[in-house]
Amino acid sequence: MNARRDRFRDIVEILTRHGLGFALAHFGLDRFRPAGGNAGQEHLRPPREASLPVRVRLALEDLGAVYIKFGQIISTRTDLLPPEYATELAKLQDASPPVAAGQVRAVIAEELGSAADRLLESLEDNPLATGSIGQVHCARIAPDPADLVKTVPADTAGGGRNLDVVVKVRRPGVVDQINEDLELVAELAKRAERASTRAAGLHLAALVDEFSQTLRAELDYLQEARNAEHFAANFAADNRVHIPQVFWDTTTSRILTLERIRGIKVNDAAALQAAGINTGMLAREACSILLKMVFEDGFFHADPHPGNFFVEPDGRLGIIDFGMVGRISDGTREHLVRMLLAVVERDAARLTTALVRLCAAQANDGLAELQADLGRLLDRYAGRPLAEIPIVAVLSELAGLLRKYRLRLPREMALLLKMLVMADGLGKQLDPRFELTTQLGPYTQKIILGSLSPEALTERLAKLGREALRFGADAPEILRRMVEVLERGGIDIHFRADELDRLMDKAEKTGNRIVAGLITAALINAVGELVSVQPDRWRNWPKTLFAAGIGGVGALGAYLAVTARHRK
User: Fold this and answer.
1) pLDDT at 45 exceeding the cut of 60
2) Which of 314, 370, 386, 519 is 20 to 30 Å apart from 400, CA to CA?
3) What is the DSSP string of 347-398?
4) Cβ–Cβ contacts within 10 Å for residue 241, how many?
5) Which residue has the higher pLDDT, 216 or 477?
6) Angle 152-294-154 from CA coordinates, rounded to 5°
7) Strand partners, 264
8) Mind telling me the catalytic residues?
9) Cα torsion for 11, 17, 20, 24, to the nearest 10°?
C-alpha cells in the first residue's frame, strides 16, 4: 500500500513539474500533493517555452516505460486525439538502459537449460537494440534439420553452416513492474472518467483496457513467434518477401530466437541509391505487400515503420518485429464493404449508418449533423478518379469527425487506419510522387465485386434464412417474456384473454410479412446489383437465381412452419 501511495506521489510531482498540475483534480490526485505545493499556484503556470502537447510528452517520458508505451499507442488513435497531440506523442522513444550481459545470459540459461549452450557460446555481449520490455543480442547457431523451412536461404541451410540469429530476451522483473503500472493506469483512467466528461467521452477506461491487452501480449514472445510463422505461411508462395525463421528449441515466453535479417533499411536513401535500387518500384512493392496482408489475408503488420523493413541482397523485402499485429474479422470486413459501397454511390445516409454500426454507437440526436458532414466530405471528392483522392487527407478528415461526434473505432479498425497512414508515409519517403490510393484501388474494387458475387449472395441468403428461422423459433417466447415483465412491473397492463390472443396472432402474422418482405427485397436488390455490375459472371443467372430462390423459399417455409407450430 505504501508503494502504491509513493507511486501516486511520484506521478503528482512529475505532472506538477511539467506544468500539468491543473489535471490532478481530474485524476483524483489532489490529496497526494505535498503540503505547501499550492504556494503561489506555481503548478498552474505551465512553462512558456513548451506547448501543452510537448509537456504531456515530456511527462510521459519521465513517468516510465508503461506510460511511454501508452503514449505511443494512443498517438495512433487519430479518431480520439487532436492532430497536434498525435504528432507530438508519436515522437516518444522506447529507450531504456541496457541489461547487463551477465543477467541476459542468466535468463537464457534458466529458460533453456541444456539447450542454452546452443546460444551462449556465440552470444554477443553488446546488445543490438534495447527497449523497455526486452533487448536484442546477435548470435550464431548450428542449424537443426527440424528447423529448416522455406525462409532459410538454401546456401545457408546446407552444409551444416552456422546461421546468424537475433535473440530477444525479456528484461528480468519487467512483468511484475508492468502489471503494477497497468493497475495504476487503469485506476487513474476510471477516476478521470468520473471527474471529467471529456475523459468519459474518450472512453478512457476502455482504451486503457485495450492498451493493457496489447502490452501484455507483447510480453509473451511465444505469441510473437506464432505471429511470425503466420506471416511466413501467408507469404510462403511469394518470392518478394522474407519472413525470418523461428528457432523453436531456443524460444520460450521470455526468449525469442529468429533468423537475422540483413539488408538496407528502406529509409536509407543513400544506400538504396548506391545499390541502384529503384525507390519508386520499391515503394509500390512494399505497399502492395502491406495491402495484401489486410485485404487478402486479414492479418497484418500493425507497426510498419521503415526500421522494420530491409531490402536484402537478393532483392527480397525482409520484415521484422511481429509483436503488434492486426486482424480483420468477417464483421469488420462486412462493415468496410458497406462503407465502400456508400462512398462509391455517394450515399451519406448509408455511410453514416455503417460508420455508427462499426463504432458500436447508439443512435442519437447528432446523427443528422454527422450525415450532413459526411455528405460534404463525399461531395468534396465527387467525380474525381480514385487515384486522385488523397487517402491520408480523407482519413484525417474522417478522424476529425469521429472526434467531433465522440465515435470510437474498434481496435482492429484503428490499427488498420494507422497502418494505412504509415504505409502512405513509407511510400512517400521512398518516392515523393507515390499515391497509396493507386495501390488501394484494385483491392477496394475486388472487395466490392466480391460482395456482389454469386457466392456472396448465396451466403447472405443462407444467413438471412438462418436468422429468420431463429427469429421464428424465438419470437413467441420473447413475446411471452415481455408480457410477464410488464405484468410484474410498476405499470399494470390489462388484457382480456380473447384480446391477447388476437394481439399475439396479429404480431406473428406481421412478423411473417416482415421477414418475407426482407428476404424478397434482399433477393431482388442483390440480383439487380449483380446483373448490372457483373454481367459476365451472371450469364447463367437463371440457374443460380433458381437455386438461391429455392434456398430463400426453403428458409421462409421453415420459419412459417415453426411459427405455426408455436401457435398451436
Assistant:
1) no
2) 386
3) -HHHHHHHHHHHTTPPP-TTHHHHHHHHHHHHHHTTT--GGGS-HHHHHHHH
4) 21
5) 216
6) 10
7) 311
8) 303
9) 40
Tally of CB atoms within 10 A around 505: 11
Question: What is the spatial distance between Cα 84 and Cα 315, in angstroms, rounded to a whole number?
Answer: 38
**What string of DSSP letters covers 161-218?**
--EEEEEEEEPTTHHHHHHHHHHHHHHHHHHHHHH-HHHHHTTHHHHHHHHHHHHHHH
Instruction: Report DSSP state, residue 45.
Output: S
User: What integer is the mean pLDDT of 59-85?
Assistant: 86
Q: Given its phi and psi angles, is residue 298 left (phi above 0), alpha (psi -120 to 50 degrees) or beta?
A: left
3-state class (DSSP) for residue 140: strand
Q: How far is CA 293 from CA 26, 223, 304, 416, in A?
A: 41, 18, 12, 11
- Partners of residue 301 on adjacent β-strands: 325
Percent of the chain with pLDDT over 70: 71
Q: Strands 241-242 and 163-170: what pairing? A: unpaired
d(CA 285, CA 465): 43
- Cell numbers placing 70: 501508452
Per-residue model confidence (pLDDT) at position 248: 95
Task: Please tell me the least confidently modeled range out of 60-64, 278-282, 393-397.
Answer: 393-397
Query: What tens digit of pLDDT does each residue of 549-565 get?
Result: 444 445 445 444 444 44
**Of 531, 524, 515, the residue nearest 548 (C-alpha):** 524
**Angle, alpha carbons 390-363-86 (nearest 5°):** 40
Q: What angle do CA 530, 536, 539 make, to 5 degrees?
A: 85
